[in-house]
Structures are given as structure tokens and as C-alpha cells.
UniProtKB/TrEMBL annotation:
Superkingdom of origin: Bacteria
Protein name per its UniProtKB record: SGNH/GDSL hydrolase family protein
Length: 293
């Protein structure tokens, strides 16, 4: 009886393992055919592109740099800023562009509040995981992260753990080629006015780091002859601890401080994010400063 039970248990475990392997392969194949759901698959499933300007960073890049305004100046541009993202993901996305032989003249990097941590943003980083067995760049970038072994070696594990990001619903939408708005406006995501927005912020306890991933981005740009323009972007008027931006410049004097380039809360959707009107004013400032010469 015991032998029969053990044999049955082993068969169930083997069957479960095989099902997980098949599901893993099936989900991954869908993502390998998808290139219009978000900025990560848009880069991963692409070949060499040419850009005069690539924009990287968090939502403070995604919502602040109006890519079509660069295009009006004759500059081939795309905003690859990712809301919720950290420099961990920005560095990896740039590595993928290099791996795919992109030609990039300038990178505008939003490097301000995101300098205060070196952690991955699970909600964004998880979207790289379908490709972890297909890309040495992605594999090595995640190699020192917690749960790398689980995500890499256990079939289908990553799709279960990160179901909201890459699970069944996202896989199904990718298979149907259901569009999103993430690639509209050349990657720029405009915000409107929010009458209930919180127009206060406190940066007192925030401390910028000598950031590993910012250093990676600098090294990648130098190695590939890319002009790196690192900037700090505006915040609303009612902010405590604005000396944070001075602390950033104490560590990295090359980062351009535009924290107060746009003044007036009418230009903000929330304290840390400008609305479309503010973003257009700010983008015009950046274009005039760096691209009108």
C-alpha cells in the first residue's frame, strides 16, 4: 500500500512539473511575440532603432518630458520613462537597447528622488521576467536579487508570483494584441489637473545614495558614445526638505537641477508630477537648454 501511495505521489509530482514546464513555455512564447503592450516588450522584441533622444526614468520622466516636442525640432525621440520604476529598471532597459544595437545620440535621465534607493521595483521589474531565460543581460541583471533562484529555476513560478503583472490576464491580452496607452505620444504620458491632488511633500528623511545603477547608466553611455544628460525635475511649491536636491549635487555635481524650473501649482497634477501644461513648459526649457545650440 505504501509503495502504491509513493508511486502515485511521484506520478502526481512529475505530472505537475510537466504541466508547469508546458505553461511556462506557452506563456513565454506569447511574450516573445508581443511588442505593443508596454515599453519593455517594445524594446525586447525589437531590432536596431536610431534615436537622437532617449528619455529614461520613473513617472517623473514619463509624465514630464513631452517627446513630440522634441520631434517638432527634428529630433527622433521616445520617452521610455516607466511609472513606478527605479534606476534598476532604467539601467536594464538601456542595456537591452545596447544589446539590440540601438544607435542613441543622447539619453535624458531623470535622476532625483530615484537616487535614494537601489532596489528593484517589483511591479516594473517583473515585466522583464518572461525573458529571463532568453537574455543574458536580463539574467545577469537579476542574478543578485532576492528570489532569483526561484524565478529562474522553478518553471512557471514567476508567472504565479507576479500574476497581476505577467499572469493569465496580461498574457491573454498580449496574445490578443490588445493595445494600451503606454506607447502613445511617443511614450509620454500626459496628466490632467487633479482638484483633489496632494500638493504637499516631505523629503526630509530622503537621502540620495552613491547609486549603483546610476553609475551603470553612466558607464553604458560612456562605452557607447552616448551623451548623458541627467536632470532633476520640478516639484510643487509646498515641499519640505528641498535641500535633498543640494545633497544630490554634492554627490553628483553633473546632474542638472531643474527642481524649481516650473513654478506655480497650476502646472502640477500632484506635488511630484506636472500636468500636461507644466510638462510642455518644462520640456521647452530642456530643449532650449540642450538642443537649440
Amino acid at each position: 500500500m505504501m509503495k502504491r501511495f509513493l508511486f502515485f505521489t511521484i506520478k502526481i509530482l512529475l505530472l505537475t512539473f510537466m504541466v508547469l514546464v508546458v505553461l511556462d513555455i506557452a506563456y513565454t512564447q506569447v511574450y516573445l511575440q508581443s511588442s505593443h503592450r508596454g515599453k519593455i516588450d517594445y524594446v525586447y522584441n525589437s531590432k536596431a532603432r536610431h534615436y537622437d533622444v532617449v528619455i529614461l526614468g520613473s513617472s517623473r520622466a514619463n509624465n514630464h518630458f513631452v517627446a513630440p516636442l522634441f520631434e517638432e525640432k527634428g529630433l527622433k525621440t521616445f520617452n521610455y520613462g516607466m511609472s513606478g520604476g527605479h534606476l534598476f529598471e532604467a539601467s536594464l532597459l538601456l542595456k537591452l537597447m545596447v544589446e539590440r544595437h540601438y544607435t542613441i545620440k543622447n539619453v535624458i535621465l531623470e535622476a532625483d528622488l530615484n537616487l535614494a534607493n537601489e532596489k528593484e521595483s517589483e511591479s516594473v521589474a517583473s515585466k522583464f521576467l518572461p525573458y529571463i531565460h532568453r537574455s543574458k543581460v536580463i539574467e545577469s541583471h537579476f542574478a543578485q536579487q532576492p528570489h532569483f533562484w526561484d524565478n529562474y529555476y522553478i518553471p512557471f513560478y514567476r508567472y504565479i508570483v507576479f500574476d497581476p503583472q505577467i499572469g493569465f490576464r496580461e498574457m491573454y491580452d498580449a496574445a490578443r494584441e490588445k493595445p494600451t496607452k503606454l506607447l502613445d505620444h511617443l511614450g509620454y504620458y500626459p496628466l490632467g489637473k487633479n482638484p483633489n491632488a496632494n500638493m504637499k511633500n516631505d523629503l526630509t528623511n530622503l537621502k540620495p545614495l552613491h547609486n549603483e545603477y546610476y553609475e551603470e547608466i553612466k558607464q553604458i553611455c560612456k562605452a557607447n558614445n552616448i551623451n548623458l544628460i541627467a536632470v532633476m525635475t520640478p516639484m510643487c511649491s509646498n515641499v519640505k526638505g528641498l535641500d535633498y536636491f543640494l545633497k544630490v549635487n554634492a554627490i553628483y555635481p553633473e546632474i542638472h537641477n531643474y527642481e524649481n524650473a516650473i513654478e506655480g501649482d497650476q502646472y502640477f497634477s500632484s506635488c511630484g508630477h506636472m500636468n500636461d501644461t507644466g510638462a510642455r513648459k518644462f520640456t521647452t526649457v530642456i530643449i532650449n537648454e540642450f538642443f537649440n545650440k
